[in-house]
Amino acid sequence: MKTTLVVMAAGMGSRFGGLKQAEPVTPDGKGILDFSVYDATKAGFDKTVFIVREDMEEDFRRLVGDRIAKRTKVEYVLQDMKDLPEGRTKPFGTAHAILCCADVVKEPFAIINADDYYGHNAFFDIRKHLAGAKDGEYAMTAYHLGNTLSKNGTVSRGICETKDGYLEKVTEVTKIAPDGSYEKEGEKIVLPPDTPVSMNLWGLTPDIFGILKEEYKKFLESANLMKDEFFIPSVISKALEEGKATVRVFRNADKWYGITYREDLAEVKEAIGGYVRDGLYEGI
Prior knowledge:
The protein has a single domain, classed as Spore Coat Polysaccharide Biosynthesis Protein SpsA, Chain A. It is built from seven helices and 13 strands. The protein has helices at residues 32-43, 57-68, 94-99, 120-131, 208-222, 232-241, 265-277; strands at 4-8, 47-52, 73-78, 109-113, 116-117, 137-144, 155-163, 166-176, 181-184, 187-190, 196-204, 246-252, 257-258. Strands 1, 2, 3, 4, 6, 7, 8, 11 and 12 form a nine-stranded mixed sheet that branches. Strands 5-13 form a two-stranded antiparallel ribbon. A two-stranded antiparallel sheet has the order 9-10. The protein starts with a strand and ends in a 7-residue tail after the last helix.
């Protein structure tokens, strides 16, 4: 069965400062996305779909997409901004980005963030699951919280509750500090380092688009459109509650790397440089 990698690349990159999806992490100018797409292609994904904003498409193609297109089939989807209220420039979020792919993606697919390095092992698990998945049989890779924190500031993570290898609930928690703590109703809560978290590596089947369309309509009717986000973890959690889906959880103890802040860049360069020297990305 054919499978597709969908890359969410329409984020503003405001905390990083600039088009961080294109930031080089190797001396020859490759970025995190080069390695993620390499890993996914090696695992058996047939094509890559980039979700971008119209105002960044030209730069993204020139700095990232054209280079990757030499190694695998690439398509583009523009994240629709027509529903944004006047004064809001930030897209509505990950669930809306995926919904924008409904006319392009007709096969089982994985989604990732453009600025996250997931490690090559994760893609094999998701690809194997999708190859035999029926409608509503989703999957995700859960990382240890302690392996996903930034030393340079707070991060947002999807905190996962699991049972017998399947996801029961995922809750988006914002402003998690480098020590794994966050505040809730004025109280400091410290999460254990091995808490399973979502980094938006999901394996989905095309029926998700119907669910997303229904939930997006509700979002537009009830949300504060100036500030609220339409997150994919929230949509999937609701689908679980309503019995519309199951989510197989693949636990991954690998170190995650990402560029949330510009200060994160040095660590990412060192880590990926080490993988290249070890021969993990021969021929990239």
